[in-house]
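Project standup — Tuesday

K.O.: blocked on the structure for the chain from last sprint. Re-posting the sequence here as requested.
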Amino acid sequence: LIEASVGDDGVIEREMRNIDRQDALDALGVPSEDALDALTDIDEDWEAIEKDASAWIEQTLQFIRLREISETESIKGAIPFRYIYSTSRMHTLIPLETFYSNCISSIDMSKAALLSRTVKTVPMTFRRRTALSRSGRASSTRLLRYGDPFISGMWSITQGDDRGRSTAMWRQMPGYHSDAIVDLFFRFDYVIEADVSAAVNVMIEAALGGPSAAAAARRRGDMALPPFQQTIWLDREMELVTDATLLALLNRPYQPKAAPQGGRDFNLNPKRWLNMMRLDIPEQENWNDLCVTARQKSEACLLTLPSFVGDLEEAERRASEVDIGRLGQLHARAVRSADPADKADWVLESKLSQHLIAGIKAPHIHLDSILASFVTGNAAASAIIDDRA
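H.V.: unblocked you, prediction finished:
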């Protein structure tokens, strides 16, 4: 062992050189100071994170927040809390089995909780300082961020929930003029991210598969092409809506109650959809085929948007620049070393880089939601829709 370890070509010296080279490789991936500052600013803005998350979890899914008793926190939103699976009054429509299967590691399974009839989570907070405080650590308060089991569970539940994904509404706007009774517009919300399926296959072929392979490939894909959303509006002629004034009107928040200046939005539930047939709107006659055509046309418009094409080209450029440095280091290491493992690392990284860049050029495009918006200025037609005429 001593003979194999000593000397310039000994195991110890070779390993020290490998460590130095690995440190050099790791240094290439160190984020800039500006990036760390930006990340810190986002993390400190916990109130915005809380507002966005609670709007879905509490207002839409109807989970109840139960605040913990705290003598140290004076900021209302900073007090640790638990989410309760409520079955009384305003209650969630998520089946209990679904909640358990997706969020089991976030449910309080202590002896006291098991003796209670209330299903609730462990203590949580959106504020990092609260989770790291003495009382927060004592009660094992979890920080709610992307990647937390509860947030991941809520995300999984959301993927199987069609509320807000496929909707139709009738929008009455005072002063809106149209040649027909109503104008139809389609809204498509797409989520674009790098296609990492080929990169995952490379890792599987290299015997690096398993649960972590897809997650590792996804993280690298997100670093190269941060997922982003793109909205496409089409008019009744299946043409892209580009007029800024019209887009501002179409993008107004849903307004279920009449505004003082007039105007109101109506959710087109089955009853109102039948009432709309009394107006002889031609699009209703071939609705299914029309939706399919609009879906195909919207993606075609997306693929030709200058902003969309530009974002992909910029992401490809950034990924290529990063890979040049990393692959160069790995190649130099493989050339200098007689270890087959070093060459295998370089070959693997080269394949991953190639497929990740290809996944940026041809990204994964996911249709997240679709809205059919019928816009009119005709108050009489709106009365018919609402069964008031």
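K.O.: great, moving the ticket to review. The longest helix spans residues 306-336. The radius of gyration is 27 Å.
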